Amino acid sequence: MIDFGRFYQQIACSPLSPWLETLPAQIAAWQRESLHGQFKQWTNSLENLPALTPERLDLLHGVSAQMQSPLAQGQQMRIEKLLRTLMPWRKGPFSLYGVNIDTEWRSDLKWERVLPHIAPLAGRTILDVGCGSGYHLWRMVGAGAKLAVGIDPTQLFLCQFEAVRKLLGDDQRAHLLPLGIEQMPALNAFDTVFSMGVLYHRRSPLEHLWQLKDQLVNEGELVLETLVVEGDANTVLVPGERYAQMRNVYFIPSALALKNWLEKCGFVDVRIADHCLTTSEEQRRTDWMTSESLADFLDPHDSSKTVEGYPAPLRAVLVARKP
């Protein structure tokens, strides 16, 4: 079973300590009642992975762990086999002792787009909402974060995160909790809050923005990355049953409309930092994620449209401050 006790100890004497009034009971209830049918199989893979401490660790330029001398071929093959039992791997990539996890998303490209526009992360306590397998948590640590906390209810992502952590020397600077943001109390305790690739999945996007604001300290920074459409400050796409084959897409605003939403929720200094079309360089099928990906979600005769006829995925990064 995954141990959250060390995280509780870590935050006990920090501004996050009020979280301990609710978090342990929530995790205990999740362990008792909500485990995925394959969770035992995934945690068996975790237990069988070797606990390694890398002699060369690079979280600044990627997520890479190496020894001075390569691992024996048998050990490397065993690590790869165990990591493959945790497929599909969607967010990455990871380079772990010669095992290169080529994930569906090149999350490093998103990080390179985001990082130049935000306040330096050195010494900060950070929350990453909907963090997936935690790739960006490790990049936040590489950028000097004091503590990077991710929340994501998808249990496979938790197991992937813990597998990577075990191979990174059991690093305690990053943690992933199997929660949604609606389960969090208003902590007002994080210096930076990231929400990347989440907003369009929320039935009430303004409620999501308020929830993000409730986690920030005064003068804290929100980094919001999401799907947008071209248009003016009143443009919002409300897709039908599916958008790019995804069922749970509710509202896709223009970047200008999203700027208005942030200001309506009380954020200030709102900046549209980046606009970028999603390409098959950034999202594609790989040997580690073998089901459909971006190429299958676009109109085969017109890549500027999704298969449903909507504008192809365009993403924006907005940065804002809580006064």
TrEMBL record:
SUPFAM superfamilies referenced in this protein's UniProt entry, alphabetically: S-adenosyl-L-methionine-dependent methyltransferases
Enzyme class (EC, first level): transferase
Catalyzed reactions per annotation: carboxy-S-adenosyl-L-methionine + 5-hydroxyuridine(34) in tRNA = 5-carboxymethoxyuridine(34) in tRNA + S-adenosyl-L-homocysteine + H(+)
Binding site for carboxy-S-adenosyl-L-methionine: K91, W105, K110, G130, D152, P153, T154, I181, E182, M196, Y200, R315
Coiled coil: none
GO MF terms held by the record: methyltransferase activity; transferase activity, transferring alkyl or aryl (other than methyl) groups
GO biological process, one term: methylation
CDD domains: AdoMet_MTases
EC number: 2.5.1.-
Keywords: Methyltransferase, Transferase, tRNA processing
Transmembrane annotation, as ranges: none
Family as reported in the entry's similarity comment: Belongs to the class I-like SAM-binding methyltransferase superfamily. CmoB family.
Role: Catalyzes carboxymethyl transfer from carboxy-S-adenosyl-L-methionine (Cx-SAM) to 5-hydroxyuridine (ho5U) to form 5-carboxymethoxyuridine (cmo5U) at position 34 in tRNAs.
Oligomer and partners: Homotetramer.
Name of the protein: tRNA U34 carboxymethyltransferase
Gene that produces this protein: cmoB
